[in-house]
Amino acid sequence: MTRTKEDILRLIDEAGVRYIRLCFTDILGKIKGMSITRSEIEQVLEEGQGFDGSSIEGFARIDESDLMAIPDPITFRIIPWEVAGEKVAMMFCDIQTPDGKPYEGDPRWVLKRNLQKIQEKGWTFYVGPEIEYFYFAGDEEPGILDQTGYFDYGTVDIGTQLRKKTVNALELLDVPVECSHHEVAPSQHEIDLKYQEALVMADFAQVYRFVVKEIAQENELYATFMPKPMFSENGSGMHCHMSIFDGKKNLFFSPDGEYMLSKMARQFIAGILTHIKEITLVLNQWVNSYKRLVPGYEAPVYISWGRRNRSSLIRVPMYRNGKEQATRIELRSPDPAANPYLTFACILAAGLKGIEKNYKLPDPVEVNIFKLSETEKANLNIDTLPDSIESAIRIAEQSELVKEILGPHVFRKLIANKKIEWDNYRTHVSQYEIDKYLPML
Description:
- It is globular and about 70 Å long.
- It has 12 helices and 17 strands.
- It folds into 2 domains: 5-101, Glutamine synthetase, N-terminal domain (Ubiquitin-like (UB roll), Roll), CATH 3.10.20.70; 112-431, Glutamine synthetase/guanido kinase, catalytic domain (Creatine Kinase, Chain A, domain 2, 2-Layer Sandwich).
- It has helices at residues 5-15, 38-47, 107-119, 158-172, 198-218, 263-283, 289-292, 340-357, 374-379, 389-397, 400-427, 431-437, and strands spanning 19-25, 31-37, 49-52, 66-71, 77-78, 88-96, 123-136, 177-182, 188-193, 196-197, 222-224, 238-246, 249-250, 302-306, 312-315, 329-331, 383-384.
- It is an alpha+beta fold and 441 residues long.
- The strands form 2 sheets. Strands 7, 8, 9, 10, 11, 12, 13, 14, 15, 16 and 17 form an 11-stranded mixed sheet that branches.
């Protein structure tokens, strides 16, 4: 689908839109932006909107802060509720320097640049994320709204009602939804978006997070994508289903391949397994992310793959076994607080490295890895993900692949930001320490 400037102006006037939000994303995945009026949009569509990038996380230094937000017409959407009594639309922007070049600190550009490697071959990288989140009574402590569990359904439950409203809003925004349901933990929910080309899906993921939070706030509740908000309960993941197509041909499918996986799919899986520790800082970028990545709560910890094994890092879903269009792989470690643009770029690049270097895929592990002894895991050569953000930083900082994926600017800024986060966390004296040590030491 393409949209012209005239299409957008017509849609704005037909709907009576008064304000248009120009959105972009900082390196940590937070939506930023500015609003312009109807009277300004025509010029902005032609020339872009200038702004000061010096205060945006991971963007420009003070001495090179002038940047341009260039709206991408295909992302134009009218928000299906009024904001302060007015109709508002939104568009995602590409960030450029004043001389018209892509800005290297723009996460959307990072993904676009990595996608160029397969677009040159005529291939398309599809992603379908399962994005989990929690509804709470407020943002100061996790006040749960229900005691229900996986796939439980209740029409009178407020969380179920909010999820339905969110699905409806997403579809009004032309973001196709595949299904939605209650997740394992109390107050935990999931809405699965229908698979799309990676750049479109990264935009959709940002719209998704925005809509989930807005609708919760409208109902005086709080939605969070925090990876692990409650002790002793499952955390939230963003399991990423993916495949590569050449036109209508699924390059991950082979009717004669073992598990119906093509050689390319096996190499792609091997690439992710080989480089997963290096890219974990991007897929799991917060201190809290590593509270989720522990054994016993369904989140993957061990670097392995399997077909039905949900304790593995990578799974080959068997829902429609033998159907070419449905053949895909599922990476289970990313969490919903990751930057989707950088996450999809890292997954793609790691997989492509496996194809390029012809990595050999180890045998699948089909037993529950959480129940294996250390000796059994060692015999199967099962490695583990980094167990803290500090470990992830150290590994990523030494990775030439991560530097290549992100580009020097984003790489440097992300590492610096995460080192500050780790330093703030490790020097913080928590309530746990006060309760445990003050009475006894």
